Amino acid sequence: MEKRRTVWLPCSHRRIEMPKRNKSKNAKGWGSDDQQLPRKRSRANHSSPPSPLCFHSPVRLFESLIHPMGTAQFFNEYWEKKPLHLQRLDSSTASYFKSLFQLSDLENLCSQGLDYYRDINVVRCIGGKKKVLNKEGRVKSSVLFKTFVQHKATIQFHQPQRFKDELWKIQEKLECFFGALVGSNIYITPQDSQGLPVHYDDVEVFILQLEGEKRWLLYSPTVPLAGEYSVESEERIGRPTHDILLKAGDLLYFPRGIIHQASTPAGVDHSTHLTLSTYQRMSWGDMLMDVLPSLLSNGSRTDISLREGIPRRLLLGISEGLDTSRRLASALRCLANQMESEMLEAHSTHLKRDFIMNRLPPYNQHLLSPSEKIPVLEDTVCLRYKDHMVITVEPSQERSDEATELVVFVLHSLKNQRESHMMGDTGEGDDHVVSRGLQFPLSHLQALRQLQQAEQLTVAQLQLPTEEAKLNMVMALWSESL
Q1: Does the pLDDT value for residue 37 go beyond 70?
Q2: What would the 3-class secondary structure string for the chain be?
């Protein structure tokens, strides 16, 4: 809290062993990972060119990413509808894109300790099928480069925002803009080669061409807005709808379900591109699966028809003339009517928790701390990280013999670990999630929503019955740096 006067795998910190000297170097200058001591991550590994992106707000960041296309036009005409290719003729954008990641970055990253499968996949598409060329264990840059050159293999580097600060900065803002997780992969493909077979994805995809050129063939979807990844057969895809050559600085967007394949043309030394992906499992169907359990639970408290027992032997498939589908449809219509009349409120819980638990922490996370002065009733306050917190209404997790009590959780991502972002199950239970936030009585919900919606207000204006309750709530938020 800030005062103003008016006011889908945890990443361990690996021990790095002392490297051995090796005098050999290859023609590309990408030597053995044993040639030098690991270098610390820095905020700028290269002399950084000026950024064409604007980081003043999540909206401004997205606007600058798709410039000169306008945001309204993009969402009206392209989002979830059709591909978009933006060509960038200025050298400044190409230089900036290249600074995000390039082939030469891999040597230093390998020296920091990368593992096959978890951090890097080495693949090649042969005869329409993906061949995995991974070794076992730790990645050595000399072996990786040899496979890259001799086998014309594609290097797929998972979630580079864990290591590259500028990508952390971009993706953190994009997660605020979309209100959804944003993952990334780097693909480095040698000339006259293809890494992955024809397939479609379950995510919205933004391709940034960083080095070289890549040819993309796009096809009409067999499953529009697909909910899962799948390889497609050559016989089903028909002719390409788009044949696009991406050059350094270009951007390509296509919706989930669009079938695609990509290859580096002959005569191009190599291609490096960044894939930014978002909106996985963010459909209305996913939302319904999230809110229906709580709707049914809350509806059952007031509607006796939902508490009536099902007929005997129904589970054995003997319904004795009962139209089960009609009875269930009637119950769902009743719930829908109560929602429309605001007798019942739909609470999204799991989608919110999954997002806030797994997203990136704020950029410059190490600067987070409570403001210096403890807030008092006369202070005007506001929430500092609205885009990094969610409010959920859930049953209390405290076990008791009494009826389950609903409480309010304020969960936030300020303490999330960048190193584990988008790397799978963190293995953290509900207790750990609660430790990243606060629990309040249900009576505090309106005051919390006041803070969410207002630019600023005084502590005394909070809709709580006592001064003590107001101060206790803002003190709790202040202690969490919110």
Answers
A1: no
A2: CEEECCCCCCCCCCCCCCCCCCCCCCCCCCCCCCCCCCCCCCCCCCCCCCCCCCCCCHHHHHHHHCCCCCHHHHHHHCCCCCCEEECCCCHHHHHHHHHHCCCCHHHHHHHCCCEECCCEEEEEEECCEEEECCCCCECCHHHHHHHHHHCCCEEEEECHHHCCHHHHHHHHHHHHHHCCCEEEEEEEEECCEECCCCEECCCEEEEEEEECEEEEEEECCCCCCCCCCEECCHHHHCCCCEEEEEECCCEEEECCCCEEEEEECCCCCEEEEEEEEECCCCCHHHHHHHHHHHHHHHHHHHCHHHCCCCCCCHHHCCCCCCCHHHHHHHHHHHHHHHHHCCCCCCCCCHHHHHHHHHCCCCCCHHHCCCCCCCCCCCCEEECCCHHHEEEEEEECCCCCCCCCCEEEEEEECCCCCHHHCCCCCCCCCHHHHHHCEEEEEHHHHHHHHHHHHCCCEEHHHCCCCCHHHHHHHHHHHHHCCC
Q: What is the pLDDT of residue 469?
A: 97
Q: What is the pLDDT of residue 33?
A: 40
- Taking only the tens place, the pLDDT of each residue in 251-286 is 999 999 999 999 999 999 999 999 999 999 999 999
pLDDT of residue 441: 95
pTM (2 d.p.): 0.87
Tokens of 448: 């919390």
Contact 290, 351 (CB under 8 A): yes
Please report the pLDDT score of residue 228 as a whole number. Answer: 96
| Closest among 128, 260, 274, 124 to 199, alpha carbons compared | 260
323-365 residue pLDDT tens: 888 889 999 999 999 999 988 888 888 999 999 999 999 998 7
Residue pair 9/428 in contact (Cβ under 8 Å)? The answer is no
**pLDDT value at position 82?**
98
Nearest to 186 by CA among 98, 68, 90: 98
> b/e for 369-393, b at 16 or more Cβ within 10 A?
ebeeeebeeebbbebbbebbbbbbb
Q: pLDDT tens, 155-187?
A: 999 999 999 999 999 999 999 999 999 999 999
The Cα-based distances of 403 to 45, 97, 393, 399, 434 in angstroms read 57, 56, 16, 10, 21
Find the distance separating the first CA and the last CA of the chain, reported in whole Å: 4
> Minimum mean pLDDT among 324-328, 416-420, 424-428, 444-448: which range?
424-428
CB 52 within 8 A of CB 96: yes
| Amino acid occupying residue 293 | P
